[in-house]
Specification:
Strand order of the largest sheet: 2-1-6-5-7
Distance between the termini: 42 Å
Number of strands: 9
Bound molecules: 3-[1-(phenylmethyl)indol-6-yl]-1~{H}-pyrazol-5-amine
Helix content: 25-40%
Radius of gyration: 22 Å
Number of helices: 10
Length: 243
């Protein structure tokens, strides 16, 4: 997968080159190119923003600069790209989104700042046949799109073959069965007088699976009842309902 990121703060994306994702890049499982939006300005001040029509607080990012940048970055007809624009006003980015995007050959992320990007940039891209996804990573307000891109790239990249050491992790992680993950434990058996649940130390794999499912259901009911409502009627069996 090829990922391009356009931003006025390229160094914000440096964490993508660390640790697991950095190793995936070194191994060629992922290609990440970060572009400085100011490279497409032509004035001495390298202006990327201007006052909003209609008044109001803050500034809006200028369409000319973004238009030229995306013309260049998206100019790969042989590699169809999806343009992703983080915004508080976007559709929710979910694990399902991450799975869908993991199948893409190329993702281009446009990181806005200030109050966002002039709407005509997105209209123009769509008019030219580019798929444009405006996405939110949660109901809270950030200062720019870069942190959202870090979140989304990590969520997508970990699903790519070979990136995670243990592929079962991605297959079995939270949300893969629609439930939250239950509690995890490791050595020592007792820590500060707190013991690991007996069932996990026995060898009964059926009992362990049941216990883990029960804890996941319990946690989901307590913290995210909306996820339970979203599960289909057949998602929970009798044992689940008894849990
Ligand atoms: N889930 C999520 C995404 C964002 C986000 C993404 C990109 C940008 C670009 C500028 N801002 C600041 C902004 C504040 C308020 C209204 C509009 C824009 C951004 C915020 N916040 N929260």
């Amino acid at each position: 997968m090829r990922i391009d990121v356009v931003t006025i703060f390229p160094s914000y994306l440096q964490p993508l080159r660390e640790a697991l994702l950095g190793r995936a890049i070194d191994r060629g499982l992922l290609e990440v190119a970060v572009h400085d939006l100011r490279d497409w300005t032509h004035d001495v001040h390298q202006a990327v923003d201007d006052s909003p029509y209609g008044g109001g607080p803050g500034m809006v990012m200028r369409p000319q600069v973004w238009g030229e940048a995306l013309d260049d970055v998206l100019a790969t007809p042989d590699l169809p790209a999806r343009l992703v624009v983080p915004t508080p006003a976007g559709r929710p980015f979910t694990q399902a989104t991450a799975h869908a995007w993991a199948a893409e050959e190329r993702l281009v992320f446009a990181c806005g700042r200030y109050e966002g990007i002039d709407e005509r940039v997105l209209l123009d891209a769509r008019a030219r046949g580019i798929t444009v996804d405006e996405v939110s990573i949660g109901d809270y307000v950030l200062v720019g799109g870069e942190v959202a891109v870090l979140v989304m790239v990590e969520a997508v990249a970990r699903l790519l073959p070979g990136v995670l050491g243990n592929p079962r992790s991605a297959a079995e992680d939270s949300f893969s069965d629609g439930l939250l993950e239950g509690p995890s434990y490791t050595r020592p058996e007792v820590w500060r007088e707190l013991a690991v649940p007996d069932v996990l130390r026995g060898g009964n794999h059926a009992a362990i699976a049941r216990w883990r499912r029960d804890r996941a259901l319990e946690r989901t009911r307590d913290r995210r009842p909306d996820l339970l409502d979203a599960l289909g009627p057949d998602a929970l069996d009798a044992a689940d309902r008894a849990a």
